[in-house]
Amino acid sequence: MKNRHQKFLTVLGARVKKIRIEKGLSQYKLSYDSNVSRNQIIKIENGQLNPTICTLYALSLALEVEPKELFDFGA
User: Fold this and answer.
1) Does pLDDT of 1 surpass 70?
2) In this structure, is residue 75 part of a structural domain?
3) Distance of CA 67 to the CA centre of its chain
4) So what's the pLDDT on residue 4?
5) What is the pTM of this model?
6) Residue 1 in domain
7) Into how many domains does the chain fold?
8) Residue 24: how many CB atoms within 10 A of its CB?
9) Which one, 17, 26, 45, 67, has the greatest CB density within 10 A?
C-alpha cells in the first residue's frame, strides 16, 4: 500500500503491537476483545492499514488504555 502518511501508520502500528505485547495479549485475544478482525490487527500492526477512529477506539478499550496512549510515540 502506498500512503503519503506511511511513516505515521508504521509508527502507530508498532505502538499498538507494543501495548498488546505488554498486556500479554495475542492477536487472537485482541481481535476477540475488540471485535476487530485479526487480519485487520495484523495490517494495522504492520502499518498496512489506515484504521478508522472507531477501530482505534475499540482497540484502546480492549487494550485497557486511553485512546491517546495509542498516539504516544515518545514512550
Assistant:
1) no
2) no
3) 10
4) 77
5) 0.91
6) no
7) 1
8) 7
9) 45
